[in-house]
């Protein structure tokens, strides 16, 4: 089973602009299609509600692992349907990392999500890896449209 999704995109926007779109919780919510309750803070959980059509029944929760200005932002996350299940599902969380590097035309954004191999058979049966792979393709398009407009 694959454990890691990787996606690299070239953005026609400066690192500072991409960084703000990633780490300001309001801007992140705009392109990621989620309404977040609070800012991103290392070691703290940010919660919200997914607004992406077809997924509005999901709640969003991420614990920020790292904020390295202008270069790396990471969190663990697991979308869940039920508030009561959120704590039970923490062990199933995957690690999402956004790494930025300046380029002549703007910014190279490398997105990685890892940790799928620790998920139980019933989650793998729902094909979380494939769904998230498709999801990151869409989210890469979303952030590109957001920062390049």
Structure characterization notes:
By secondary structure, this protein is an alpha+beta fold. The chain is 29% helix and 34% strand. It contains four helices and seven strands, in the order E-H-H-E-E-E-E-E-E-H-H. The chain has helices at residues 15-23, 25-32, 121-125, 128-148; strands at 4-11, 34-36, 45-50, 59-68, 72-77, 94-102, 107-114. The protein has a seven-stranded antiparallel sheet. A hairpin with a 4-residue loop joins strand 6 (94-102) and strand 7. The protein is globular and about 45 Å long.
In short:
The protein is of the alpha+beta class and 149 residues long.
Per the principal axes of the C-alpha atoms, what is the gross shape? globular
Number of helices, where a helix is a run of at least 4 consecutive DSSP H or I residues? 4
* Topology, number of strands: 7
What fraction of residues sit in β-strands? Answer: 25-35%
Write down the Rg.
15 Å
Q: Could you give the order of strands across the largest sheet?
A: 1-7-6-5-4-3-2
What would the average pLDDT be, to the nearest integer?
Answer: 88
Low-confidence stretches: none
User: Helix proportion of residues, in percent?
Assistant: 25-40%
């Amino acid at each position: 089973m694959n454990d890691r999704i990787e996606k690299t995109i070239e953005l026609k926007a400066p690192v500072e602009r991409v960084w703000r779109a990633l780490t300001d919780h309001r801007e992140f919510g705009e392109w990621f299609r989620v309404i977040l309750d609070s800012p991103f803070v290392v070691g703290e959980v940010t919660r919200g509600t997914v607004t992406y059509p077809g997924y509005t029944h999901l709640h969003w929760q991420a614990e920020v692992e790292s904020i390295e200005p202008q270069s790396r932002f990471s969190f663990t996350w697991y979308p869940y349907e039920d508030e009561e299940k959120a704590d039970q599902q923490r062990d199933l969380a995957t690690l999402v990392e956004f790494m930025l590097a300046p380029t002549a035309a703007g910014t190279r954004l490398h997105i990685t999500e890892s940790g799928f191999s620790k998920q139980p058979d019933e989650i793998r049966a729902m094909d979380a890896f494939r769904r998230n792979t498709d999801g990151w393709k869409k989210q890469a398009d979303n952030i590109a449209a957001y920062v390049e407009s």
